[in-house]
Amino acid sequence: MIRHVVSWKLVAEDAAAQELAATEIVNALEALPAVIPEIVSLQVGRNIAHPDSNWDLVLIADFASLDDIETYHVHPDHQKVIALVRARVSARSAVDFEL
User: CA angle at residue 76 from 1 to 95, to 5 degrees?
Assistant: First the structure.
């Protein structure tokens, strides 16, 4: 099992714009398991503490293999989400590790 963890910093600076961007990203990501069967589990969370130093959003998703992560990555629905996310974030970090 491979765990895929991604964190983002939002571009938006005011609270209302951050809330909108976060909601759009969360909704888009949470829709992916219904269309990409390689996703074993997927959870998206918003930061609730230390907003000046912590990342704003995190994705934690599990896959059976690295091949399944690659299938997920190139899936057309995931590519649409990537475009949406890139327009709303200023930085990204990711780690994939074996469970």
Answer: 35
For 1-99, strand residue ranges (E) read: 2-10, 39-46, 57-63, 89-98
How high is the pLDDT of residue 97?
98
pLDDT digits (tens, 9 = 90+) for 57-77: 999 999 999 999 999 999 999
Q: Which CATH architecture has domain 2-45+62-98?
A: 2-Layer Sandwich (3.30)
What is the pTM for the complete model shown? 0.93
Cβ-defined contacts of 9-14 (< 8 Å, 24+): 9/55, 9/56, 9/89, 9/90, 9/91, 9/92, 10/56, 10/57, 10/88, 10/89, 10/90, 11/88, 11/89, 11/90, 12/88
For the chain, give every domain's residue range: 2-45+62-98
